[in-house]
Amino acid sequence: MSAAAQETTTGGGESKHKHHGPRRPGYLKLGYHIVVSNAVYVLLAPFAVALALRASRLTPSDLAAARAYLVANLQLAVSLVSVATTLATVYLARRPRAVYLLDLACYKPGPEHVVTRETFMEQSNKAGVFTDDNLAFQRKILERSGLGQETYFPAAVLNSPPNPCMAEARREAEAVMFGAIDSLLANTGVGARDIGVVVVNCSLFNPTPSLSAMVVNHYKLRGNVASYNLGGMGCSAGLISIDLAKQLLQVHRNSYALVVSMENITLNWYWGNDRSMLMSNCLFRMGGAAILLSNRGADKRRSKYQLVHTVRTHHGADDRAYRCVFQEEDKAGRVGVALSKDLMAVAGEALKTNITTLGPLVLPMSEQILFLTSLIGKKIFGLKMKPYIPDFKMAFEHFCIHAGGRAVLDTIEKNLELSDWHMEPSRMTLNRWGNTSSSSLWYELAYTEAKGRVRRGHRVWQIAFGSGFKCNSAVWRALKDIHPSKEACNNPWIEEIYRFPVVVPKVESVVSSS
Prior knowledge:
This protein is an alpha+beta fold. It has 18 helices and 13 strands.
């Protein structure tokens, strides 16, 4: 099925609807943007014309005089050329090495791991540890979560009775990590022993030996591999891993960096009755992704993206932000992750700080002028006016927003004034896969690729939130058109992309098994 046909299809028996694509700015604003963006060329045009006229009037005698002057001052000319060559050499040696994303692979569990909303409630009932009120609470959350009927749980949680243990947690980790990495290496043709850097992030499962050591052992990586394991850093750890790999690739020449992002469900299912901890049970699901980065210039031609910016924001110094996602024991001594009622407010503050840093790096001058004018009017002149929200759609073609939950996506959509089209990858990822923690951004990018939307030169903004509290961003630029037909090997959406987008009701009832 063609990309165009895919764009006009909905799934689950829903009626077909016309796909409108991203909203465009109004003609007035678009005209203003064009004028300001090309202001430099307009200002330089008279000088270019004057220079062209002067050059057209040069005579052979003028050129001979210039040559004679150069010969007479040969020592000065050679000195100037030497200084320019030295400065250019120093600049080229000190500039950051470009980091390329060769490919990515997202893990797709088998059908035996599928958990419907009804299966979820059935397992919760069978557990025999939840009160009737809290079973009703979980049902209510699940019905409004935006999760569909095809998300995944590990075997230990689906078994009757459930058998969460270290061995089962290791099996889940191995299945997710090795499944994604096998697909990635097979598709890129890169040998395991060519990898010089390994970064694995998993927030809540940190065994000994570490997950990164499991990767090194399984693939028999070379002895001098730089291996890192990030734990306890929440759903934003995937972009922290990308940033760390970027920094390491600045000092490891001609290297590949393997980044693996995942979360482990087996040992982190909450078996108590604290409602702030029950939210995680309803939202988090099984999943993971592997990403291969390179700093080799020869890899640019076959890479998908180039990493342009990473921006990290940490509000951990504020007690309210620090405790809004907190792992602890409940009153009965059962360990869980408590989500504070302040979470959305804290996330909004972290996002504001992050985009304040990112904005000047990515926004066109036209947007920066409007924002600065609004800020001056409000702060200096005391004018009663709404602060101008920069239009990030002028800076990016695609948005990958961490699918942490419906409320998170609703808030970001409203604050950034994004369209349904821009939010589609995030909402469909939440529906199809649930909250897969740090790997959700890669399922979203894979969705965009499977839809055939990525073209050379397009810019992608990944935004993630995590405990601590952190908000992190990564900006990528596409180096080529991404053709869905070439993504069948490692894109989990390919075989079913024709069914999406689907209509996700505000409330989806859980059918009782009784």
